[in-house]
Amino acid sequence: MNEHRQDKEQNNEPNASFENNGHHGDSTGEINTSDISPVQANSSQRVLIVTAVDAEKDAVLRGLGDTGAERFDVIAVGVGPASAAAGTAATLAYAVAAASTRALAQGSTAPSPSDVAQASATSSRPGPLAGAGSSPAYMLVISAGIGGGFPGRADVGSLVVADAMVAADLGSQTPDGFLSVDELGFGSSIVAADAELAARLRHELQRAGLAVSGGTAVTVSTATGTAETAAELLRRVPDAAAEGMEGFGVATAAQQFGVPALELRAISNAVGPRDRDAWRIKDALDALQTASSILREVITS
Question: d(Cα 7, Cα 289) in Å, to the nearest integer?
Answer without folding.
Answer: 22
